[in-house]
Amino acid sequence: MVVPGARVLVVEDEPVLAGTVSAYVERAGMTVRTVADGLEAVAAAREWAPDVIVLDLGLPGLDGVEVCRRVRTFSDCYVVMLTARDDEVDTLVGLSVGADDYVTKPFSVRELVARIQVMQRRPRNDGAAAAAPARRIVGTLSVDPGAREVLLDGRPVDLTRTEFDLLEVLSAQPRMAFSRRRLIDEVWGPDWVGDEHLVDVHIAHVRKKLGDDPARPRFVSTVRGVGYRMGAGE
Q: Do 60 and 36 meet the contact criterion of CB atoms below 8 Å apart?
């Protein structure tokens, strides 16, 4: 079930679509706030502190990419990007600034709500765990699940929530090959539906932030025909 009282900020400049999404989200038991402008979206995210933002890519004022970039300076809420074109460049750009997922118009509002519910079921770090998993070391990389902290050569690495979750899952069982589907199940949840290419995009961003060369990886290796595993390549 969705987290009680979950807040969803819908940022969409098409009134009919915004109203439809809001109605479905409210019907699912969540609290909704709707804005139609990029600048309003940043202000609302700062003031209202939503759990999830449904963010249209094409907005007046500021586009969705810039809104996401600004929001990420003060919030780690989940962000689902809406794009009017099935354009991989838009998708990659949106995810590179910290979006967790994307949906291409036209889309099923029921599916969008289902994705929001899946995100809300993902565990959050509340600092209350009595016995947090031990820090994991892979070469010069340190992953601390309890503190949700990643250090590379002793310096902190700024990861989004989804990027950290992927690295946490991989580092929990180093040398084990994880399929994309299993990573989806572990990070997004078994009820998530969509393009598994989403995993590749997020892994690419993790590698970039770690300075990891896919051709000669030190930390995250590609297992051909399967997916990914933690550790240097052969």
A: yes
